[in-house]
Design a protein that fits this description.
The complex is a heterodimer of chains A (131) and B (228). In chain A, β1, α2 and β2 form a beta-alpha-beta unit. In chain A, the strands form two sheets. Chain A has a three-stranded mixed beta sheet with strand order 2-1-6, with helices on one face. Chain A has a three-stranded antiparallel beta sheet with strand order 4-3-5, with no helix packed on it. Helices cover 37% and strands 27% of the residues of chain A. The radius of gyration of chain A is 19 Å and the shape is elongated. Chain B has one domain: P-loop containing nucleotide triphosphate hydrolases (Rossmann fold). Chain B has a seven-stranded parallel beta sheet with strand order 4-3-5-2-6-7-8, sandwiched between helices. The relative contact order of chain B is 0.18. Classes of the chains: A alpha+beta (131), B alpha/beta (228). At the A-B interface, α1, β1 and β6 of A face β1, α1, α6 and α7 of B.
């Protein structure tokens, strides 16, 4: 019985991290295409992940190892840059950050924020290649 | 002597592939003049019950169809088919969300021009579907009164990926002591200005309002949902 319970947890964890796995696989595909185009071996990938992208950084890091295994990207380093949520505040008439994802309002004047300018990024910014 | 590594700028969306397919779907939906609505929620929030009711109510006046995503079983498709509308089940296996390519594959044998409304019920999950654009015109996030008031605070991203929120199972509100003002405040805290509709598939509460809303969105300028 103990074994089946462990398996149950295992499959739940896998299920919960599955979307990071498909994102990691998309990342590997994209990076391989780009690396082929510029003819280089990738040592590191720089990506941007916004808080509203729906991606958990730690899950993506471990999924990347899995997804890059046995590909030309195996052993390359995934460098994740956190980006803040930036909104346009109609009160301040300026770009502002928000209090938090749970309190989506201007960090300066507390006006509710509905115009999101940044924070949904899920972007491959650059590749570091071996010369 | 080893040379310094060189840096090559890429600046591309990691889900570019999905976005390309979603864009193609969106133009196909526009060409065929079909209004596409997707539903996301946690498992058990009442997506299928709500959709069955909506399909049944829309059927006399409109040509409707539905796609439904689940990890396994065709149970939901069978339930939805009771409405008389064409229904197709997408079984995702271990995948916790629908992707645009799955929608495209499922639609291959349907003539979209013969439809007024297409509904896409996503896999029950409040996390993963938020990253994937399916080309839909409108995305609904459902949260039921039995789940409590704090789902928006726990899963803010899905509320950002959706256009409208539905409070479902309103008939159970009193039985579970649902604190509606708090739930509404939580939605507004994570997504200021978000439109919220209260519904009960069981009693029919809010169904007319929802159908009127759907009609106005279909007739009005199509606001496109784009998840980056």
């Amino acid at each position: 019985m103990a074994v089946s319970r462990i398996q149950h947890h295992g499959s739940d964890e896998l299920k919960n991290s599955m979307h990071e796995l498909s994102i990691a696989m998309s990342l590997v595909d994209l990076a391989r295409q780009e690396a082929e185009r510029v003819r280089g071996r990738v040592i590191a990938l720089h990506i941007k992940v916004g808080p509203l992208s729906g991606v958990f950084k730690d899950a993506l890091l471990s999924c990347y190892e899995m997804a890059s295994h046995d590909t030309s990207l195996q052993g390359s380093q995934l460098m994740i840059e956190d980006v803040p949520i930036v909104i346009y505040c109609p009160q301040c008439r300026a770009e502002r950050t928000v209090g938090s994802v749970q309190r989506f309002c201007c960090s300066v004047c507390s006006a509710p924020a509905s115009q999101i300018l940044r924070g949904k990024e899920l972007e491959l910014v650059s590749l570091e290649l071996e010369s | 002597m080893t040379q310094e590594p060189r840096l090559v700028e890429v600046r591309k969306n990691i889900l570019k592939q999905n976005d390309v397919v979603a864009r193609e779907l969106r133009s196909e939906f526009r060409r065929s003049n079909v209004f596409v609505v997707s539903l996301v929620s946690s498992p058990g929030s009442g997506k299928t019950a709500f959709l069955e009711k909506i399909l049944t109510l829309l059927r006399p006046r409109y040509r409707v169809a539905a796609l439904v995503g689940d990890l396994a079983t065709e149970n939901d498709a069978l339930r939805l088919a009771r409405s008389g509308a064409p229904v197709k089940q997408i079984t995702t296996g271990t995948l916790c969300h629908l992707e645009a390519a799955m929608v495209r594959n499922a639609l291959q044998t349907w003539d979209l021009a013969q439809l007024d409304f297409l509904f896409i019920e996503n896999v029950g999950n409040l996390v993963c579907p938020s990253s994937y654009d399916l080309g839909e015109n409108l995305r609904l996030v459902l949260t039921s009164v039995t789940e409590g008031e704090d789902k928006p605070l726990k899963y803010p991203t899905i509320f950002h990926s959706a256009d409208v929120a539905l409070l479902t199972k309103m008939d159970l509100s009193q039985a579970v002591e649902f604190d509606e003002p708090t739930a509404l405040a939580n939605i507004q805290a994570v997504r200021p200005g978000m439109q919220v509709l209260r519904v009960s598939a069981k009693t029919g509460l809010g169904m007319k309002e929802f159908i009127d809303f759907l009609g106005s969105r279909r007739a009005g300028p199509r606001e496109m949902h784009v998840s980056l």
